[in-house]
Structures are given as structure tokens and as C-alpha cells.
Design brief:
Layout (H helix, E strand, L loop, with lengths): L1 E10 L2 E11 L4 E5 L6 H9 L6 E6 L2 E2 L4 H6 L1 E4 L11 H5 L5 H10 L15 H15 L3 E5 L7 H16 L3 E5 L10 E4 L2
Parallel strand pairs: 3-8, 3-9, 6-7, 7-8
Antiparallel strand pairs: 1-2, 1-4, 4-5
């Protein structure tokens, strides 16, 4: 279980949020909603261990995540606004760090990119690049998926496939926390509104 207690974050001199508390159990999902600039991305970076909270505590299974940042990083997969795709590598080569050939083939099939596996990533559309970035999530074998506007650039069919990946992850005890302005295929997700 991921548990946040009294989290606060400052960006420069500006208080972004304070006194945020929530818990997400294994198999759970939390949607972060609110207007632009309300702190959704900042909270995701904090949950990923990329930022330290200015107040409060973040625990995983009762243990402070800051006590062992490497262990927390190993259980976390973060999908930000940028897709982090190397344009000179093929779609399959972009995933090589994350898994075996068989696992890569499965991941590409899950996001409907099998036929484009050998195409240089610079040739992919924006939606295809986003799907390629999403394909890294199951390959990372991380229990905690942190997603910042994950459906950006996806068509309805791709969102449906993404929903299948999210459901599989949660069925295996994984946790999903997503910042979004649009509905996501996360049935039963709790919601945290930032203002």
C-alpha cells in the first residue's frame, strides 16, 4: 500500500499544495484531477521520488520511501508528458533495455504496434509514439505506475487497449496513480481533486 500523510510542496516561493493525505491499496487506482497548475504533475514527481516533500511523509508498506530511494525507484514506472523515445531507434529497439525479445513482442502487441516494430521511431505519429511509451509500463515490472496525462494523443481504440493494460496491472496487485483532465478507463478509481 502507498500511503501519503500531510504532504506539502513548494515550487520556488509558491505553495503548490499542503496537507495532502491518501492511501492506495494493492490493485487500487487514484485519479488526480484539477485545473492546470494545481500540482498534479508535481505530486506525481514527488510520488516517484524525483522531488522531496516540503512536509509530510510517504510510505510503501509502512516503510518511508525516502529511506531507500533506489528501492522505491525499482517499484515505480513513471510516464510523463514527454514520451522519452529515441528517434533513431526502431520501436522494438526503444524497448530493448526493458525486456527480452519475447516480452517486447508481447508489449508491442498490447499497444497494437507489432507491424511497426522495425520502423524508426521518428517515423511514428504522435499517438504511436505515446503507445510505444505506454508499452514500457508492463516491461518495467513495477508495482506503482505514475501516469501524467497518459492518453494524450491516443484515439479511442488505443485508449481501450490502454484500459486493458491498466486492468491487468491492477489485477496483479499493481497500483495506478494518474493525473488527467479526461476520463480514463480505471473503473472504481478513487479521486483526489487538487485546486
Amino acid at each position: 500500500m502507498l500511503h501519503a500523510e500531510g504532504l506539502a510542496a513548494l515550487r520556488g516561493e509558491r505553495l503548490v499544495f499542503e496537507r495532502l493525505s491518501f492511501a492506495v491499496p494493492a490493485g487500487g487506482a487514484l485519479l488526480l484531477v484539477g485545473p492546470n497548475g494545481s500540482g498534479k504533475s508535481t505530486l506525481l514527481r514527488l510520488l516517484a521520488g524525483l522531488l522531496r516533500p516540503d512536509a509530510g511523509r510517504l510510505t510503501w508498506g509502512g516503510e518511508d520511501v525516502l529511506a531507500d530511494p533506489q528501492e522505491h525507484a525499482a517499484r515505480t514506472a513513471y510516464l510523463g508528458h514527454l514520451d522519452a523515445i529515441k528517434p533513431g531507434l526502431t520501436a522494438a529497439e526503444n524497448l530493448r533495455f526493458w525486456g527480452t525479445e519475447a516480452a517486447i513482442a508481447t508489449a508491442l502487441a498490447a499497444v497494437d504496434l507489432t507491424r511497426l516494430a522495425d520502423l524508426p521511431a521518428r517515423m511514428l505519429s504522435a499517438g504511436q509514439k505515446r503507445r510505444l511509451a505506454i508499452a514500457r509500463l508492463p516491461l518495467a515490472r513495477a508495482a506503482l505506475w505514475l501516469l501524467d496525462e497518459p492518453t494524450l494523443g491516443l484515439d479511442a481504440k488505443a485508449v481501450g487497449r490502454f484500459g486493458e493494460l491498466l486492468a491487468l496491472h491492477r489485477a496483479g496487485g499493481g497500483i495506478v496513480i494518474a493525473a488527467t483532465h479526461l476520463p480514463l478507463p480505471l473503473p472504481g478509481a478513487a479521486e483526489l481533486a487538487l485546486v
